[in-house]
Amino acid sequence: MDQSTKLLGLLTLALWGCQGAPTSGAAARAGDTAVRAAQGKALSCASNLPARPVATTAVAATMQVEPPGHVSHTGMLLIPAGTYLMGAADQDGRPDEYPAHAVRLDSFWIDATEVTNAEFRKFVEATHYVTTAEIKPDWNELQKQVPPGTPKPPDSVLVAGSLVFTPPDHAVPLDDVSQWWTWTKGANWKHPGGPRTDIKGKDNYPVVQVSWEDAAAYARWAGKRLPTEAEWEYAARGGLKGQPFPWGREDVSTGKPKANTWQGHFPNLNTRWDGFYGLSPVGRFAPNGYGLFDMVGNVWEWCSDWYDEGTYAAEAGSIVVNPRGPATGNDPMEPGVPKKVVRGGSFLCNATYCKGYRVSSRMKTSPDTGLEHTGFRCVSSR
Ligand SMILES: [Ca+2]
């Protein structure tokens, strides 16, 4: 993946035209959020995640093809072939989770846990790979790939960085993610909370601040691929039928802690009932019926599919075999900015705000965007 391809995702296009350029890093909080707010479109975790300050209309990120060669199944589990109902089986979903429809999948191997910092470090050391968040955007390159007349973003925004969770100390409106996400210079997988943070002693934590491109590059290196959205949901269900969670139907906040989510008042008060304010090491909660850990909670997980709100409607009516999603992304909330699917919710999910920990919950993010609560795991068909 060349630099220009990676940087392709940094273009704001119409969003910049609406808002005008932010004048400082603070003004660039959560990228285009202020633009959407100004346009009167509510934005919340229940509908969208923030993107880098400059979004894209053209992304080279395409469907992943599994590379040939040997695959180590260490740390992976074999999910049996089968047919299931993909999508929400209750009335608790967003519109894009309906209709539930029959999907048949071949068997596949999947990582038992999210990819950890230690595993990602091995990849970086072996390949000298540089992640999206570590690359300073080059306006000369970007300019070739945006409509003529697109204004240059300010230098304060064109920095190597990523999106960091910055909780307020008071209650805030939940339709404005810029209240708790901040575009942060120097944030990347080695400094997930910004330059003053690091991952020392956190080898067993999920790697975060990785773009879809980064996750796909890791998967290729490992001889694997990212899961399709259908594979991810099938695996997350753990063999249960029609249940909203990997463990069944019990609410996430009753009984024993079952996943790393948010308890209290989001985003300013976290009671840590589940033991963790932010990220947790992988594998700290009981696995699902397939032996998979943290399929929900902790971090959102990249899938290989492009996001389209109407994917399920298009697939309903017959049994879909090994679906790989639409040919390109289409998010009506941000037309022209293709998104990849992320699944499973994160440590920020709370019932009052975002039930991303439901197995059928779908979310989407532009492929160039890294977030402090987004990671991935890999699969293999061989
Ligand atoms: Ca938690």
From TrEMBL:
GO molecular function, one term: formylglycine-generating oxidase activity
Coiled-coil features, chain-numbered ranges: none
Record-annotated Sulfatase-modifying factor enzyme-like domain positions: 74-379
Pfam families according to UniProt: FGE-sulfatase
InterPro entries given in the database record: CTDL_fold, Sulfatase_Mod_Factor_Kinase, SUMF_dom, SUMF_sf
PANTHER family: FORMYLGLYCINE-GENERATING ENZYME, SULFATASE MODIFYING FACTOR 1, 2
Protein name in UniProt: Formylglycine-generating enzyme required for sulfatase activity
Lineage, highest ranks first: Bacteria, Pseudomonadati, Bacteroidota, Chitinophagia, Chitinophagales
